[in-house]
Amino acid sequence: MLLIKHLGISARQFDISIGTANGYILRMQKNNASVGSDVIERIVKLYPQVNLVWLITGKGDMLLKEKSNEASQSDQAIETYINERLNQKWSSEKKALLEDILKEIKSANNK
Fold first, then answer.
1. What residue ranges carry the coiled-coil annotation (predicted)?
2. Is residue 63 classed as helix, strand or coil in its secondary structure?
3. What is the pLDDT of residues 30-73, one digit of tens each?
């Protein structure tokens, strides 16, 4: 519940975000039950700022240090750059292909 409170969402919204049944997290808390490994995996995947050790054991900081967040932002910047370069290359290739097609059409019309 600390994580849900930190995220500023309801338990229902959290359940939906991690793909569990309505009331799953509240039932786990009420019954002092363990959350399944598949659910833990989804939580960490969806909320990468969450410290896995804290999530499993309750020990340590709830959130990872800012340094990890910076690395994640760096990864996103790299991915964005790569996508932009690929799009530029594909755009150039598409333009060249279009020019070739237009030349072929003009050549066919002149015959």
1. 64-111
2. strand
3. 898 888 889 999 999 999 999 999 998 889 999 988 654 555 66
Per domain, the residue ranges of the chain are: 2-57, 65-111
pLDDT digits 0-9 by tens, 81-108:
777 877 777 777 777 888 888 888 888 8
Cα–Cα distance, 36 to 76 (Å, whole number): 29
Q: How far apart (Å, rounded) are the C-alpha atoms in residues 59 and 52?
A: 10
Residue type, 67: K
Which single residue is written with the structure tokens 């833990």? 40
pTM: 0.56
Q: Dihedral, CA atoms, 90, 95, 96, 102, nearest 10 degrees?
A: 150
